[in-house]
Amino acid sequence: MSFLELAKVEKTYPNGTRAVQGIDLAIEEGQFIVLLGPSGCGKTTTLRMIAGLELATGGAIRLAGRDVTLLKPSERDVGFVFQFYALYPHLSVGENIGFPLEASGVPRDEREAMVRDVARELGLEPLLARRPRELSGGDQQRVALARAMVRKPAAWLMDEPLGTLDSDRRLEMCEFVRARQLASKVTTVYVTHDQEEAMRLADRIVVMSDGRILQDAPPLEVYDEPATLFVARFVGSPGMNFVEGEVREHANGPRFHPRGAELALAAPRGARSGPATLGVRAEFVRAEPASAAPAAPAASWRGKVVVDEYLGSSRSLHVDTPLGRVVARGHADAASALGEEVALELDLAHVRLFDPANGRRLA
Ligand code: ATP
Question: 299 and 278 in one domain?
Fold first, then answer.
């Protein structure tokens, strides 16, 4: 049995909204799980059901060997942080952070040492005597994180806890959250709609849409082996390039024939004949000046560079082709080719095929 388990968990709100439609999730002790998905997909509702702030209307939740489905939040031994977390205005920063320890009866000396410890990690030491109103919004959020993470409950539950911070602070806080979680091994469920944050933090990313789980896998797998077109589009910036067409058998193996074009692209070995959507990430598309490409024009995929984005460490070329717009990402020092004709080459090891009928990845 896993440390935190959701079995066929459902939530239908009184107004009839089916926010969560029967999800199964098994989380091992000490894992860091990120629930990722667009607004309204049901991730916050899922987290709130684990916390006990909403009751499931179907299914069961088990935490640390107990059925907690119907327990009150205070009976579940969880710590939460939300995007907007009100601090106690009449208490100092130090007292705010120490509050959960005091409430659970930790002796004063021990408590003060624990507060100092977490405050040091977060750079909050100089602020310990201040009141919340004397802090910036970002500092208040750091205090809320410190307050939640000073104690080691059975699980930490976090709902967009870094949402209000600017990007530098966000990175810093990501590092803090992950370092403290790794050191304390508290099982953590973290909600975000920011896929980069999900990649940075998670042992496993659970991608949700319409109250269902589309994929539950380590970040690398979600990125490189997306289970559906939705995941392929949602994860990664930019999302995958897609081309509609069909796979046909040829004497020397399968080929992908884009719809409405004469050319045939190489298809992954073992691809079965039939309609398919080809997906490939920008870093696995190579753009070469067409003049340098040896292939016969009819057999190669060509287009014109319409956008040249220099991104510091890399360069993205947006190429208009007869099969639609394709983004190719390469070295920043690659020859710039705005307005030029280029030939595109795909790295076959990273070409993915999806079923256009249901969006699922084809084996
Ligand atoms: P966001 O990132 O915007 O918070 P989310 O993925 O966390 O989105 P939820 O907040 O879980 O999604 O909402 C899932 C669905 O349930 C949405 O359609 C939302 O409008 C609806 N919903 C959420 N809370 C309630 C409520 N208290 N009563 C009725 N419907 C609700």
Answer: yes
For residue 361, tell me if it sits in a domain. Answer: no
Take atom 21 of ligand 1 and give the residue whose Cα is closest.
19
- Which residues make beta-bridge pairs with 247? 256, 274
Residue nearest to atom 9 of ligand 1 (CA): 42
Q: CB of 79 within 8 A of CB of 247? A: no
Taking the CA of residue 48 as reference, the ligand 1 atom at the shortest distance is: 11
Residues 6+ apart with CB under 8 A from 135: 93, 127, 143
Q: Three-state SS for 143? A: helix
Confirm whether 186 is domain-assigned: yes
Please give the distance, rounded to the nearest whole angstrom, from the Cα atom of residue 224 to the centre of ligand 1: 29
- Of all protein residues, the one whose alpha carbon is nearest to atom 2 of ligand 1 is 39
Q: What CATH number does the domain containing 246 carry?
A: 2.40.50.140
Domain of residue 326: give its range.
238-354
Rounded to whole angstroms, how far apart are CA atoms 336 and 307?
10
CA separation for the pair 122, 120 (Å, rounded) = 5
pTM: 0.90
My answer on whether 207 and 277 are in the same domain is no
Pocket test for ligand 1, best of 9, 11, 12, 13 (most atoms within 8 A of CB): 13
Average pLDDT for consecutive 10-residue bins of the chain (363 residues)? 96 97 97 96 97 96 96 91 82 94 91 93 92 90 90 93 82 89 95 92 97 97 96 90 93 88 82 94 90 60 90 89 90 77 90 95 88
Q: Are strands 274-280 and 314-321 parallel, antiparallel or unpaired?
A: unpaired
- Domains held by the chain: number: 2
Do 160 and 306 share a domain, yes or no? no
Answer yes or no: do 41 and 187 share one domain.
Answer: yes
Compute the distance from residue 40 Cα to the ligand 1 centre, in Å: 5
